Amino acid sequence: MNEPTQAEQELERLLHRTLRAVPLRRAPQTLESRVLGELQRRAAMPWWRRSFVHWPQVARAAFVLLCVAMAAAVVGATAAVVGATGEWAASLARAVPPEWIYDGLAVSGLLYTALFGLGIAAYRTLYRNFEIAGDLRS
Amino acid sequence: MRAYQDMVFSTAARLAGDDAQAEDISQEVFIKAYENFAHLQASPTAGGWLRTVATNLALNHLTRYRKRWRLFSEMRLNAADEDSPEPELPLPDTLLADLGADQQRVVIDDALRRLPEHQRVSLVLYHFEDLSYQEIAVRLRVSLAKVKTDIRRARAALLPMLQSSGIAP
């Protein structure tokens, strides 16, 4: 990018002075009551509905142990299923012609590209309409 | 809270460009302050802490709701990458000098709201929050060149808006 010109530097200084001289906006009168209400609502919540850091230490430790046990169970179950079905899956993979796999990958890629293109088209249409509506409002 | 609520709300409103979102952000800032009350009550930098949290939460808020569109919007912005006009010298010494302080604030808030979000956020971080171009680029996860371009365009767009609202003779 080019270095700022003298005019741009003067504009920067002028706007900086102007913007910094602006007084603060007054916060809405409802803000204080909203904050106090939210604090009361959170204080009234049972411990298990608060964030994890506010849980009792015993509950946190129990939760971590439970998660570890569940993860171990899932890993064990997955290994058992893979072991039981591995031979069957391997024979199935040998039986499927490679062309089917290549065709499947090509169709998947095509569908993904089409979806991506549709997403871009939808975004551009919707975003532009939103922008035009915003310009008309302002 | 009363001593800082205007500062927190102003910071959030300038970045978010929306009063309802700014109120939500301000509420979250003061709830975080309450959670850190033991640390803040004796701190001489409580105001700075609140300002930083307000800035961070406002940026998080903007990121959370717009991240999914960023790829497409940057593609679109790059496609429509027009240069801003060079400001014409001599520039006036002051802007909005004929207006009272509250009127100045209204005019500037309105002008900031009319800027595209990526320009407004960069401009506010530079002029109000005293972040450098490099710091803004890091915070917004965009290139340094994009930050400079956005701020330059934002200034070029702001000038006629403010000039049309009143210039000192």
Helix share, percent of chain B: over 70%
Tell me the Rg of chain B in angstroms. Answer: 17 Å
Counting DSSP E segments of at least 2 residues, the number of strands of chain B comes to 0
Q: Please tally the helical runs of chain B, counting DSSP H or I stretches of 4 or more residues.
A: 8
* Estimated structural class of chain B: mainly alpha
Portion in beta strands of chain B:
under 5%
Strand count, sense and barrel status of the largest sheet of chain A are: none
Assembly type of the chains comes to heterodimer
Describe this structure in words.
The complex is a heterodimer of chains A (138) and B (169). By secondary structure, chain A is mainly alpha-helical. Chain A has four helices and no strands. The longest helix of chain A is centred in the C-terminal third of the chain and has 40 residues, at 98-137. Chain A is flat, with a radius of gyration of 30 Å. Chain A starts with 5 loop residues before the first helix and ends with a helix. The relative contact order of chain A is 0.03. Chain B is an all-alpha fold and 169 residues long. Chain B is built from eight helices and no strands. Chain B has helices spanning 5-16, 19-35, 37-40, 46-79, 101-114, 117-127, 133-140, 144-163. The model of chain B is unreliable at 77-81 (pLDDT under 50). The A-B interface holds A 1, 4-8, 10-12, 14-28, 30-32, 34-35, 38-39, 42, 119-120, 123-124, 127, 138 and B 1-2, 5-10, 13, 19, 23, 26-27, 30-31, 34, 69, 72-73, 75-76, 86-89, 91-96, 101-102, 104-105, 108-109, 113-114, 127-128, 145, 148-149, 152, 155-156, 158-159, 162.
